[in-house]
Amino acid sequence: MSAPTCLFCKIVSGSIPATIVARTDDSLAFRDIDPQAPTHVLVIPRRHAHNIGELADTPRELADLVALAARVAEQEGLDRGYRMVTNTGSEGGQVVFHAHLHVLGGRPLAWPPG
Ligand code: AMP
Ligand code: ZN
């Protein structure tokens, strides 16, 4: 089910444009509008969920999301490594409240994050 005011639901429905790089029946991968690394792709479930934790109830959907993120990393040639991260809640840095994985790579990534 989609949420009418949700930005990423609008990307799923096509009412807001995005540069889509990969898709499955359940998930969509598109380039972040404000990339923080040479590769910065967001991988989202097509069905609205507020955060990744909510997908624990639908493990098939969660597995599809992680598999697509790994496929994107391979497709982008990130064989030297990459980061797959998810921000949860405002203090965790989440700004868009539709579950998403960030796939970041193409440069050395510092740890710990800020
Ligand atoms: P987060 O802070 O984890 O909620 O991440 C939200 C991400 O969505 C940020 O990296 C934004 O740059 C990105 N973003 C916001 N609007 C768009 C958009 N229209 N298309 C692609 N990425 C977007
Ligand atoms: Zn949504």
How would you characterize the overall build of this protein?
Helices cover 21% and strands 22% of the residues. With 114 residues, the chain is of the alpha+beta class. Strands 1-2-3-5-4 form a 5-stranded antiparallel sheet, covered by helices on one side. A hairpin with a 3-residue loop joins strand 1 and strand 2 (27-31). The chain is globular, with a radius of gyration of 13 Å. The mean pLDDT is 97. Adenosine monophosphate (AMP) is lined by residues 7, 16, 18, 32-34, 42, 87, 93-96.
Summarize the structure.
This protein is α+β, with helices and mostly antiparallel strands and 114 residues long. It contains two helices and five strands, in the order αβββαββ.
Strand content: 15-25%
Gyration radius (Cα, Å) is 13 Å
Q: Uncertain spans, ≥5 residues at pLDDT below 50?
A: none
Number of distinct beta strands: 5
CATH superfamily: HIT-like
Q: Number of helical segments?
A: 2
**Coarse shape:** globular
List the helices and strands and how they pair.
Blueprint: H1 7-13, E1 20-23, E2 27-31, E3 39-45, H2 59-75, E4 82-85, E5 101-105
Antiparallel strand pairs: 1-2, 2-3, 3-5, 4-5
Bound molecules: adenosine monophosphate and zinc ion.
Structural descriptors:
five-stranded antiparallel sheet; HIT family, subunit A; binds zinc ion; 5 strands; alpha+beta; binds adenosine monophosphate; 114 residues; globular; single chain
